[in-house]
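Ligand: iron/sulfur cluster. Inputs:
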Amino acid sequence: MNILVVNPPNKPFTNETILAEPLDVLQIATVVKERFNNVRVIDMDVNRMENNINEYLESKNVIVFVYDYQLPLHTSEAINNIFEIIKNLNRESKVIMVGKTSTYSYSKFLENGVDVVIKGIAEELINDVIENVFDKDKLNKIPNIVYKDNEKVVITKQVFMPNNYNKLPMIDREFVDISKYMETRTIITSRGCIGGCKFCTTPYYFRKWCGKSPVEVVDEIEILIKKYKAKQIIFLDDNATVDKKRMMRICNLIRKRKIKCLFGALCSIKCYDAEMLEEMYKVGFRWIHFGLESGSPKILKMMNKEMDVKRVEEIIKEVKDMGYRVRTSFILDYPGTKVEDLKKTRKLLKSIKPHELRLHYLAYRYGTPVYEENGNVINKTQYIHGNKPNIENKDLEHEIELLLKNLKKEGYEIITDNVDWMKYNNQDKEMKVAAFVPIKYGMCWYEE
Ligand code: SF4
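Predicted complex:
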């Protein structure tokens, strides 16, 4: 049996200068390889493939699409493109879908030729599904899946699937040619979050936070350095600093093993701890991301984001003083946003002046409370790349223009479309960007 684990192409394609190895796809492939021999990873995004994978097919194939699992950068155009890929298959193939989007909207995927959708965390089920995908009678015994039997949709028994991320094998990056990706390497050391932001799928999908042990994390870091010559590594966890004790141990091991590398991490204000961040800085962490999302207490409350704006100001100042390059993100059109809320965001930005600023218009993701609560929103898509608000409101648009004008005045380069991020290499450490598109990881951090 020919097994392909596929990263479908982003539409539009991910900017070539920010391409990261698809860790979520590689994680699934690594698990599948534990039971099956003929396993390959096809990264259609890095290979710039449109909607055809026939050249990889043999007579009998199982194709596992890993879509929107960890890094939701996709658009509804990308979903339609997956359906095109399935329509174009010219050999006997079974298609399995894994990931958040198909978990919450499985009917759409079944209607368009997908044979089985795994609902929720997939690693513990994927090998049983592959083994039985050609035999519907046996599929019925596997929990948490959806498939079609003739025209009938079968939903099997739903069981609670714990987030046992610490039990998964270390990702095998040999499935891909690492030289095709950006030079900053990535690692995921934990999954899940203790926050409950209403626009985010993570807490509802993984339920509980779970991290790998410090030894495993540092072993993987050493592999990235020795085998893949990593000089910079980003922790792409949903929230890397949930467990202070674990992070302190990771730092301790990095020091003990005399590892020389620069690191970055995605964290949350809720899990901020000055002692931990100082320790992280000492062993090479130089870049930190905080999703702040709004400067308005009213909107933060609506988002279910437990943050005090005054405290945010203090924390960002402290972190900048420690020497970190700081990225923050904001959602400009969260439902309920009024001009006075954007003014508060503008005020907060003026005070904290992050080095990098990722500006978003809300991506309504299936399975999130904000998606459920806004059933009447017309433009409900997974759109994340664009720079157009979901609502037409001249006053808000005017306020956003003002915000951008102010940022420009303060020295930010405003980026609204794909750019060649290579030209930003080796720039001044204080260089400031505000972007409506994903920003390259690993710009402007230096060893002091
Ligand atoms: S802090 Fe980040 S990862 Fe956690 S729930 Fe909020 S948006 Fe999601």
